[in-house]
């Protein structure tokens, strides 16, 4: 997505060879018009996938997911990050390792918001090692539902997330694919 790549080049900052900061339009301040355009792109890619619900992971996935859900006229659910296990049988939970915080959390979904007929599109802001997306997919599949796609705003293609998710057979649409990150260097995969 050209407009997104231009914005990343203009305002993104590589904190290291592995972490990109895009606080000015995605992770802290949110450019709602850009989020709308991102929603249009995901809609274009996924509109014939028979999606019934859009899931995201709190908190930076919410903005792109809400626009996509609005444009596709679908319900949206935010998966919650809890610090401890809930043992009441009303939720699905799975442990996920956070790339940015280097700690674990319990990704949590209430059983009220999924059923076995659902075909779910998972949307997240970044794809690095694939832990967050894999965790979301585990919850969907534990409920007997299907993961019908994964939409990523910024994929760091030099990290293994995409390969891991593709091996599991998921259909992934990433709107910007970064091939190299370093101080003052942000390069994209030519598509
Ligand atoms: P993964 O689970 O694929 O290893 O990492 C994805 C999650 O970690 C995303 O939900 C995102 O919040 C966070 N993340 C991974 N890499 C980056 C990055 O370079 N910048 C920012 N801002 N977040 C990242």
Automatic annotation (TrEMBL):
<comment type="subunit">
    <text>Homodimer.</text>
</comment>
<dbReference type="GO" id="GO:0046110">
    <property type="term" value="P:xanthine metabolic process"/>
</dbReference>
<feature type="binding site">
    <location>
        <position position="156"/>
    </location>
    <ligand>
        <name>xanthine</name>
    </ligand>
</feature>
<comment type="similarity">
    <text>Belongs to the purine/pyrimidine phosphoribosyltransferase family. Xpt subfamily.</text>
</comment>
<dbReference type="InterPro" id="IPR029057">
    <property type="entry name" value="PRTase-like"/>
</dbReference>
<keyword id="KW-0328">Glycosyltransferase</keyword>
<protein>
    <recommendedName>
        <fullName>Xanthine phosphoribosyltransferase</fullName>
        <ecNumber>2.4.2.22</ecNumber>
    </recommendedName>
</protein>
<feature type="binding site">
    <location>
        <position position="20"/>
    </location>
    <ligand>
        <name>xanthine</name>
    </ligand>
</feature>
<feature type="domain" description="Phosphoribosyltransferase">
    <location>
        <begin position="40"/>
        <end position="157"/>
    </location>
</feature>
<feature type="binding site">
    <location>
        <position position="27"/>
    </location>
    <ligand>
        <name>xanthine</name>
    </ligand>
</feature>
<dbReference type="GO" id="GO:0032265">
    <property type="term" value="P:XMP salvage"/>
</dbReference>
<keyword id="KW-0963">Cytoplasm</keyword>
<dbReference type="GO" id="GO:0005737">
    <property type="term" value="C:cytoplasm"/>
</dbReference>
<keyword id="KW-0808">Transferase</keyword>
<dbReference type="Pfam" id="PF00156">
    <property type="entry name" value="Pribosyltran"/>
</dbReference>
<keyword id="KW-0660">Purine salvage</keyword>
<dbReference type="InterPro" id="IPR010079">
    <property type="entry name" value="Xanthine_PRibTrfase"/>
</dbReference>
<dbReference type="GO" id="GO:0006166">
    <property type="term" value="P:purine ribonucleoside salvage"/>
</dbReference>
<dbReference type="GO" id="GO:0000310">
    <property type="term" value="F:xanthine phosphoribosyltransferase activity"/>
</dbReference>
<dbReference type="InterPro" id="IPR050118">
    <property type="entry name" value="Pur/Pyrimidine_PRTase"/>
</dbReference>
<comment type="pathway">
    <text>Purine metabolism; XMP biosynthesis via salvage pathway; XMP from xanthine: step 1/1.</text>
</comment>
<comment type="function">
    <text>Converts the preformed base xanthine, a product of nucleic acid breakdown, to xanthosine 5'-monophosphate (XMP), so it can be reused for RNA or DNA synthesis.</text>
</comment>
<feature type="binding site">
    <location>
        <begin position="128"/>
        <end position="132"/>
    </location>
    <ligand>
        <name>5-phospho-alpha-D-ribose 1-diphosphate</name>
    </ligand>
</feature>
<dbReference type="InterPro" id="IPR000836">
    <property type="entry name" value="PRTase_dom"/>
</dbReference>
């Amino acid at each position: 997505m050209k407009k997104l790549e231009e914005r990343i080049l203009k305002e993104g900052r590589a904190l290291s060879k592995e972490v990109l900061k895009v606080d000015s339009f995605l992770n802290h301040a949110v450019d709602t018009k850009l989020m709308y355009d991102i929603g249009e792109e995901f809609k274009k890619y996924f509109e014939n996938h028979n999606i019934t619900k859009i899931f995201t992971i709190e908190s930076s996935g919410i903005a792109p997911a809400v626009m996509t859900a609005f444009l596709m006229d679908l319900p949206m659910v935010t998966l919650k990050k809890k610090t401890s296990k809930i043992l009441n049988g009303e939720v699905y939970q799975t442990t996920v390792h956070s790339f940015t915080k280097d700690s674990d959390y319990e990704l949590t979904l209430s059983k009220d918001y999924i059923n076995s007929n659902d075909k779910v599109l998972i949307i997240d802001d970044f794809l690095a090692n694939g832990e967050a997306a894999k965790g979301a997919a585990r919850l969907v599949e534990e409920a007997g539902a299907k993961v019908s796609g994964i939409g990523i705003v910024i994929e760091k293609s030099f990290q293994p997330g995409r390969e891991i998710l593709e091996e599991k057979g998921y259909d992934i649409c990433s709107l910007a694919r970064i091939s190299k990150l370093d101080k003052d260097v942000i390069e994209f995969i030519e598509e």
